[in-house]
TrEMBL record:
This protein's record includes keyword Membrane: yes
Similarity annotation: Belongs to the EamA transporter family.
Location of this chain's protein in the cell: Membrane
Keywords recorded for this protein, A-Z: Membrane, Transmembrane, Transmembrane helix
InterPro entries, sorted: AA-Vitamin_Transporters (IPR050638), EamA_dom (IPR000620), EmrE-like (IPR037185)
SUPFAM superfamilies tied to this protein: Multidrug resistance efflux transporter EmrE
Protein name, UniProt field: EamA-like transporter family protein
Main localization of the protein described in the UniProt heading: membrane
Organism expressing this protein natively: Sphingobium wenxiniae (strain DSM 21828 / CGMCC 1.7748 / JZ-1)
Domain EamA, residue spans: 3-134, 152-282
Length: 298
């Protein structure tokens, strides 16, 4: 019963990642909000690491943690939140995030010479077709519900950044303490977001209650409770079951975006959504995992 309740709570929390982004974007520039969020998460995890007496990595390990965080948190969150701010629907962005394990698998083939089963390649192909069905109608039309080419590119690049960061995290640094690893990696991500805020962003911050509530939710609920539940579920139910739970997140995000913001998907997009998730499920069913992949929510 406890595992079931934890699973339900995790899916509910994880699905709100881009819903929060969509809510706070009118009140703060995405680069600045992400920078503040990652800085606060760094402080939170640093306190946890200090309490657990986890040692700060040094030398090459520290550099790898910073690089992983720069990609996994900085590039991913900054680009994905920018895409949402420029018209990418929250539900579609959540769907794109579900493609990350397949991208990691392909990267392992390219850079680590690992073998990918035929079923995983088939799943990747089906998922790509599904994503095309979701994105193409929104890019082609104009007005409400349309997506610009640049936000679509930024969204896809953000997933590639997350996949690259995950690949680094699967290497020699995987055995370091969770709290100290998270603190250093969030610091690396904060550097990227701060740089973007300084040189690209508009530095908008209106101090509205919605902005502060969204920031608090992102730090405490998503990064704190959400990641804790994810780690607990992986350890008690295994990465395979956790992988199945993650597939429930994009459909729930679509429903939430429809109820809160009125975001709608057409018939072709809904079919593409189902195809994309089916492709991810097909690909994941045969992919071997050396360890659970823990990634930051949106």
């Amino acid at each position: 019963m406890l595992a079931f309740l934890a699973s339900v709570l995790f899916v509910l929390i994880w699905s709100t990642g881009f819903i929060v982004a969509r809510a706070v974007m009118p009140h703060g520039s995405p680069e600045l909000v992400v920078a503040v969020r990652l800085a606060l998460v760094t402080l939170l995890l640093s306190a946890a690491a200090l309490h657990a007496r986890q040692v700060l990595p040094r030398g090459r390990r520290l550099a790898l943690h910073l690089a992983a965080g720069a990609l996994l948190h900085g590039v991913y969150l900054t680009l994905s939140w920018w895409a949402v701010d420029h018209g990418m629907p929250a539900g579609i962005m959540s769907l794109l995030g579900a493609l990350q394990p397949l991208m990691v698998a392909v990267a392992c083939v390219i850079f680590l010479s690992e073998r990918l089963p035929a079923r995983a390649w088939s799943g990747l192909g089906v998922a790509i077709i599904g994503v095309g069905c979701v994105l193409a109608p929104a890019i082609e039309r104009s007005g409400a519900g349309s997506i610009g080419v640049l936000p679509a590119i930024a969204a896809l690049l953000s997933i590639m950044g997350m996949a690259a960061g995950t690949l680094i995290q699967r290497g020699a640094i995987a055995g370091d303490g969770i709290a100290i690893s998270g603190a250093v990696q969030n610091a690396g991500g904060a550097m990227v977001a701060m740089t973007a805020a300084l040189f690209v962003g508009e530095a908008q911050w209106d101090n509205s209650p919605i902005l502060w509530m969204g920031l608090g939710w992102s730090v405490i609920v998503l990064s704190g409770a959400g990641l804790s539940l994810l780690i607990w579920l992986v350890r008690h139910q295994g990465p395979t079951r956790m992988s199945m739970l993650l597939l429930l997140v994009p459909p729930l995000a679509v429903v939430e975006a429809w109820l809160i913001f009125g975001e709608r998907l057409g018939a072709v997009q809904l079919a593409g959504f189902a195809l994309a998730l089916g492709g991810v499920l097909l690909g994941r069913s045969r992919m071997k995992r050396r360890e659970a992949e823990v990634v930051e929510p949106a």
